[in-house]
UniProtKB/TrEMBL annotation:
One of its GO terms (cellular component) is nuclear RNA-directed RNA polymerase complex. It comes from Linnemannia gamsii. It comes from the Eukaryota. InterPro entries: DNA2/NAM7-like, DNA2/NAM7-like_C, DNA2/NAM7_AAA_11, P-loop_NTPase, SF1_C_Upf1. This is P-loop containing nucleoside triphosphate hydrolase protein. Residues 1052-1072 are annotated as: Disordered. Residues 998-1144 form the DNA2/NAM7 helicase-like C-terminal domain. Residues 560-683, 846-918 form the DNA2/NAM7 helicase helicase domain. GO terms for molecular function: helicase activity. GO terms for biological process: regulatory ncRNA-mediated heterochromatin formation.
Amino acid sequence: MHISSEGTDDFIVPTTAGAQIGLAMQVLRREGLEALQSPLQIRMFLQSCLLNLSNHHSVDTSGILLGLASETGLAKLRHIMMQSASVNSSNRTTSLTVSFQTVTLPLIGVLTRRSLCQTTLKRESNLVYGLVQELCQQFLGLHVLPSVSKLMDQTLVQTCSSTTSILTCFPQPSAQSHQQNHHQRDSFQSMAPLHCTLLAIVRLIYQLVMRFPESITKTASVTKTLDGLVDRCRQQSKTGNAKQVFLSSTLDTEMNRLSTSIQDNISELRGLREQPLQIKLSSLPSQLTDGPGALALHGPRNDNDHSMINRIDILPTRDEVLCKTNPFLPINDYKESSTQFLPRGWSRHLDVHFRLYRQDMMNPLCAGIQAFIHLLQSTDRRADQDFVDPKATNQGQRQPECLQRQVALAVVQERDIQQLSKLKHIAHIHVSLSDPASYTALFTPLHSSSSRSSSEKWFMIECPGTFFESFRPVLKAIQASRPLALPFGKYIAPTDEEIDQFSHVSAAGVIDPPLYTSAPGFEYDLSVLLENGGVLELNLRDPQSVDQAVAVLRERSSPDNTQALALVQTLGREIALISGPPGTGKTKIGIDLMRVLLHNKQTMTCGPKVVICYTNHALDQFLEHLLDNGYTKIARLGGQSKSERLQDYSLRPYVARQAIAEAFQAAESAALSTRSLTRALKSGYFDWRQVREYLIFENPAQCRQFEGSPPGPIMWDDGAIETPLRRSMTSKVAYERWATGMDLDEKRVWNRHVDKKEKEEARPTNIFDALDEAAPKSVMAPRYDIPVSDRPVPFLGGDVWSMSMKERRRLIEYWSPDIIRSIEEDLGQHHLCLESAKDSKLCGYDELRRLILSDMDVIGMTTSASARFQALLESVAPKIILCEEAGEVLESHILSALSPTTQHLILIGDHLQLRPQVQTYDLSSESSVGKKYNLDKSLFERLVTDACGRRFQVLLGTPSTLPSKIVCQYPDVGGMGSNLFFMDHRHPEDKKDPFGQQSFSNTFEIQMIEALAPGDIAILTPYLGQLSKIRDQLKDRFVVLVDERDEERLDAGAIRGDTEAPPETKSKKDAQQTKAMLQNHITIRTIDNYQGEEAKIVLISLVRSDTNTIDETSSGSIGFLKSPNRTNALLSRAQHGMFLIGNARLMAQPKHGLWPDIMKELGLSDRIGQGYPIACKNHPETKRIMISKQRRLMEAVLSRVVKSCPVVIIVPGLATPTI
């Protein structure tokens, strides 16, 4: 039995004989309650709902959820929940009562289906649970819990507590009743044990607690009664079998979670009603000198400074951006409590990482704005008056206009170079504002809503180094996390009690196995790893089985000794760290683990396995390995894959559902209204709807005048002129005619028409007509007066049609300020509706994606995508997450990927390689200030280096343990006298540009690199400036392959020294670069973007060369090259040969990390010199020339190094031999 899930799909199931899948939709479409009058009708309806909402099929039945959330569906649910329940064994119920076993419990099963509680359609699911919350006391308190108590009181329960059969837990209809009522027999519900009944109720109440914390008092009393029933059940099942013990343990765990959640919510609500400052300060440590929000010594620093992270707007406010007080930044150390205002645990851990990660986003933005403001303040006001507000502040200092403006964050969607340079004074850039309210602010005047100035300006400040949209999903995911629901708290964010318990437990057995392995009788089948077939079972509860599995894997499978042990240990730990240096098979063991997990998917029933990586490249490689092993049920989320093999595995929705269609309609309606309001604000012309909303309250009499046809003639499109009595006219048309003066124009035309007709009639055509008394006399047509009055506004409260055009314009101008304010309010509401429709559309697509993903074996995504699709992942409820290259992943990214259903977390990486990349140097561990924040310290590194965390670690073999014959088989680099060499020089670095924006570079090293560049090699350098110059130097001769992240930074112009690369973005490289001919291409990367990859030959340009470095006491710097992690990554990429060029004396200074030891080792082995040693391929013992100039090196190659040798000397990678 598998019950480790949020839903009840696996233990409250419908009988297929009685369930009709189409019945539920038919009932929901009917108005009224006629289809649910009898208990039999209700049972059949619930059976159909159970079948529709089950997770045991991949049919899109989301229409049932939409139907249940509709007004008609909620009325039907209310009707069923208000029915009295009976537990009599005869199963005979009246119209006033229903059977608890066959009606009430199936209803609970419907309300706890995963399709409902984990759906991405949050609005619809909240409507259903809102009804349950409203009827909590009646439904749960008066019907459900008393029925469970009666069942426990009956002797039948004794059988229930000792049996292992699901079908015999509750009485089934007798054979006689089967014969008497065929429909009742078909619809009979297969019941779960009493433990599962209580578990279903616990999970239902937990949904109410999580969704409606403000109504916690309603569920608290019900939960107290439920806790008593759980305790009774626990007492009755003490002597049960293994399944009963497992069920009882699961029930206790979830009941404790529910009780803790209620207590936590009650405490939080009490804190909101009282003064938070007084409550918190009494419990703060004495060492805490300042805190966030109300806990700060002088109060909140700005309008976005709060003590609780769920109240902090992710988007910075104007007040926050311009605030000069440093924000509250907590220390990132779970052992440190003196400066923390929250107790240890998940809440504090999430608070720390949210604040630090958000500050990493804010720092570049605030720095850019502050620099811009400083520039404006220092600008000559007389020469640049357009950029300065002429008004003075209270202190007598004039400040830039942007200080009084709001701050609007936007993401550049399109940057067309031609459009940028097309016009002299206008540059067109397509941006998307991050906050809908900003659209309204863009049209709001600076000083007053009553006057608008065409000279108002907004300042556009670009921060190319910050990719805001990569931060937002992670921050939102952390904000939305429920601390009490997150797994692995005792390992990742332990409380004081858990730390104490953890420190007293020995290393053996301290890590619990994954929950899914605790099911009675569960064993892993490892036969998929055996090379020659056979059977191999792994029982984690049997130490002998564990030892035997390791021994058999070492003998009969490809893993080596350490890999076999690591694989078995990882399968038995709910959180496991696989650590090892390059070349120890970390990726291989990750693939083997996935093979085992996929091979056992039927017995594990854990749903799809999630694979996350920091880079798209690493993710593509891992998924391609799975394809090589025959696994094709793979879904890759995100659209930045460069792998052609994975194109068919990208997740794309194929059909639209009702929710998506409705969202599109709502979005289109909101967009039309927004465009209309925007045009009105820009043009100053208001349509009738906007004017009517004003007049209906301010001047109803004038409003009614527009609802009828105007007096006077009407000239239609066909040229005909009619009187107003002949046709009716809408008020919209009437107002438009009035505002534009069309009625006045038509009166003029009418008057001219009358004049012309009178003249024609006055000229007789027959002189004898006047004698004919019987001839009809013509009637003179009336003329209309054209008003020309010029009255002031106070006298314009009467007839609107008698006003002159001047008066009409005056009246519209008088209305304008109030109408503009109304439009601005409407515009904000429409933007909110647009965002709501957008969210509904995304939720609709996510619901479709959920159906697709639920049927997959593997879901692959980057860490940023996992945060972006957090709601979708939580709805899929993956229980196993594997993270490759976890040492490069920020801990906040891992936290955003966790969900309440996660039971097994596998982290693979090397904590001695590159650390995660951060934007702010002062938040990194390499900074003296940032050591207390350690934002760039991954969860992987923290757990590995922590004394207690080392128990998670599974070590793989070091390179020294690899077979020496494999290393010795690597070929020598042709044409070089050594496979490893450091070329020493004293050529200085290039001068930086006067603005300090250029990254470090060294022209001499570029020249030397060019001499050795041709061929299939990789050139690595720490600085983007050097990479840019190397690319420009080689691009005319070779196809240069640059990493997508480096290319993005080069395109954006974000070249800075000693900075980390930003999170990955979409590459703009042409596809032809990935298909370049191997003999004519060269790879250039920065160090930070080459981890996880290797090359046969690697050339390294270290760039830094401070010529003022005379002795060890000099102040020469090598920047972030001194980082041990970056050094390890740099020196572990080569397979056959590695050649470095740099200033050896500078690198050997004691303060430069690992480099002094490295230079000492190279010097002892005679691998440092003033030039590269060139050797004849056929006479490697002859090394006659040491070249230090690019020209001389090329001359030596072209004229043969050893003149007596007839064989051509080959420089590494040279395409063709040169004589």
